[in-house]
Amino acid sequence: xxxxxxxxxxxxxxxxxxxxxxxxxxxxxxxxxxxxxxxxxxxxxxxxxxxxxxxxxxxxxxxxxxxxxxxxxxxxxxxxxxxxxxxxxxxxxxxxxxxxxxxxxxxxxxxxxxxxxxxxxxxxxxxxxxxxxxxxxxxxxxxxxxxxxxxxxxxxxxxxxxxxxxxxxxxxxxxxxxxxxxxxxxxxxxxxxxxxxxxxxxxxxxxxxxxxxxxxxxxxxxxxxxxxxxxxxxxxxxxxxxxxxxxxxxxxxxxxxxxxxxxxxxxxxxxxxxxxxxxxxxxxxxxxxxxxxxxxxxxxxxxxxxxxxxx
Length: 311
Known about the structure:
- By secondary structure, the chain is an alpha+beta fold.
- It contains eight helices and nine strands.
- 31% of the residues lie in helices and 24% in strands.
- Helix 2 (51-71) packs across helix 3 (76-84).
- The chain starts with a helix and ends with a helix.
């Protein structure tokens, strides 16, 4: 156990040193961001691909669009049509052969409101197209640094109009891997000119705030039981104060409404008197005197009629 902990500590120290070195050498030429858009050729009509290559590439893109678009209700023909409209670009990264960068367009293709779209990078082989990176980004930069003879890649994803998430990728074992994370915050413009951003390394615990935002699911869960809960009398009657006092003389069967809420009442036989202080008045011999105009008559028969008239 002790030896394992030492190895883990050494590993963390190495990672920390590498992160510091990367942060010190990191640069982002944000004015030279590259975007793949509608001006780039589509996979379905470019002359840079042979027909077998076109078919193989569309098949690879369909595999990546299949689940999200099927879940959204798209059929296979429409998914393949969207895949064929994917824009592509051949990018030289120093591998001897250029890598194929492809991105879908629009909301149907998986883009969001901040223009972040799926970005797929493929390496062409004799067996077809092999994935080098699947990511989501608004733009990319080919860095001046390189790893294993292949240029490092920087992807930018817009988090807000003034904040951009930067991911640094280095090449190893035939694919790009995420090796750096940075946040670029743009200050307010001066004289209508965009100012250079302030760039800082991501905090280890700052990359997970969006998934932890579960404010919407609780609202959806609470809204569902609210309707049946309001329609059922038991939840509404669970508060003795409300059921016992809200309508003291509204029902012809007051004993069911007041038997549980008012156990402390010394006169359970007179539920309508629960709100009148003179319910124990010992003059019950004149029930026919319940005539409201005799307001000066102090007989207790007037008292049960007061809640009825108040209604």
